[in-house]
Design a protein that fits this description.
This protein is α/β, with parallel strands linked by helices. The protein has helices at about 25, 40-50, 80-85, 95-105, 110-125, 135-150, 155-165, 170-175, 175-180, 190-195, 220-240, and strands spanning about 65, 85-90, 150-155, 185, 205-210, 250.
Length: about 280
């Protein structure tokens, strides 16, 4: 008798929250799996049928491989291996890795850019005499965004300023009608998607804030994702604005209207443990 996987497959997960809206079209090929997890070969099949190949910045085609044992050499580590061979190590029946795969399909240019930026830092840390466990501020920022990042886009600069000023109730409640027409939150981080399967008050995204034209909101989702992918890849590629974790804006993501059933009441936004008035102060030792 076969044991059930520890992370049961939920075929309709993408319909459970507006947070999943950006990946609904991309996840559609997996809708046929109604009773059990797709296998890694199914991931590869979806990858092979993309209209445009997903490539690393070294020009390698992305390919799905099973996760190996602990790496022994530099070339076997996660980021260098993707860059050099295109091999994306993936665990079976694992939501975290499933969403990692989907985000490569959603944001192929940005994921390739993030991967390429990691590689020289990993190489330096793993050299003889290097500090393998000491990541640079850039590595930490990239990892925070890759795992738990989101992008907030708005055609109204005043809405973005409310976010910078940590004015959550004025943003989410008093300007609620404006959010529907002038602001969008697109989740990027695969760990954030995983958390959204069992959402909890406290979920916070590390965000980039981008201004867009009003016409952006009239585009189909896949066109918006393509444009966002291009902009993000350019932003990270220049290395000017995002270099350390503090360059990312904290954003209590369940404040988005409808992203938590309870946020239809104004009192929801009075929870100052979640909707903080600013960043936590640095720990003094």
């Amino acid at each position: 008798m076969m044991n059930n996987p520890p992370n049961p497959w939920v075929p309709d997960f993408a319909s459970q929250s507006p947070l999943f809206e950006p990946l609904r079209e991309i996840a559609r090929p997996f809708a046929r799996f109604t009773a059990s997890w797709p296998e890694l070969s199914d991931y590869q099949q979806v990858l092979d049928t993309q209209a445009k190949p997903v490539l690393t910045q070294s020009g390698r085609r992305l390919k799905i491989v099973a996760q190996d044992a602990r790496p022994q050499r530099y070339e076997e580590h996660y980021s260098p291996r993707i860059y050099a061979t295109g091999e994306l190590q993936t665990r079976r029946h694992n939501w975290h890795d499933y969403f990692q795969f989907l985000t490569w399909l959603m944001f192929p240019q940005t994921k390739a850019q993030i991967n390429a930026l990691h590689v020289p830092h990993v190489e330096t840390r793993l050299k003889p005499g290097g500090d393998a466990g000491r990541r640079t501020p850039l590595e930490n920022m990239l990892s925070l965004f890759d795992e738990g990042g989101a992008v907030v886009l708005s055609s109204d600069p005043s809405l973005l300023q409310l976010i910078r000023d940590f004015q959550w109730k004025p943003l989410f409640w008093e300007r609620r009608a404006d959010l529907a027409n002038h602001l969008e939150c697109i989740t990027f981080g695969h760990a954030l998607y995983e958390k959204a399967l069992s959402p909890y008050v406290g979920m916070t995204a590390n965000t980039l804030l981008l201004e867009v034209d009003r016409a952006y909101f009239q585009w189909p989702m896949m066109q918006r994702l393509h444009e966002l992918d291009r902009r993000l890849a350019d932003l990270f590629g220049t290395g000017l604005d995002y270099r350390e974790p503090r360059d990312l804006q904290p954003f209590p993501i369940l404040g988005m209207p409808g992203w938590d059933a309870a946020n239809c009441e104004s009192t929801y936004y009075d929870n100052d443990r979640y909707f903080r008035s600013g960043r936590r102060p640095a720990l003094v030792i």
